[in-house]
Design goal:
This protein is of the alpha+beta class. It has one domain: Arc Repressor Mutant, subunit A (Orthogonal Bundle). It contains four helices and three strands; from the N terminus they run ααβααββ. It has helices at about 5-15, 20-35, 50-55, 60-70, and strands spanning about 45, 75-80, 90. It comes from Flavobacterium phragmitis. This is Helix-turn-helix domain-containing protein.
């Protein structure tokens, strides 16, 4: 049940946040699933395509918009890597 804590906290945080859409929720849930698969580490290091596959998102622009929003709104700390051979770093703040 401890694994559900970050998701529960996220839902409490977004309850009154009108900026958050279902796509944001899907990406955050995919990030948590990826994190669980990696042993619940914080931060995680991931390629965009790994998270998009879990979230069932096909558009890179949608992914980037939503992950940048989650970063800007304070739900995660997203550190993108410009080199395609390096994974981005994502810290969980919630």
């Amino acid at each position: 049940m401890e694994q559900l804590n970050p998701l529960t906290e996220f839902f409490r945080s977004i309850e009154k946040d009108q900026r958050i859409s279902i796509t944001h929720i899907g990406i955050f849930a995919a990030l948590l699933q990826f994190r669980a698969n990696e042993g619940n580490i914080n931060p995680i290091r991931a390629y965009r395509h790994e998270i998009m596959k879990i979230a069932k998102i096909t558009g890179p622009a949608t992914y980037h918009r939503c992950i940048k929003d989650l970063n800007q709104y304070g739900y995660i700390n997203y550190i993108p890597k410009r080199n395609r051979n390096q994974k981005s770093v994502i810290y969980f703040l919630v």
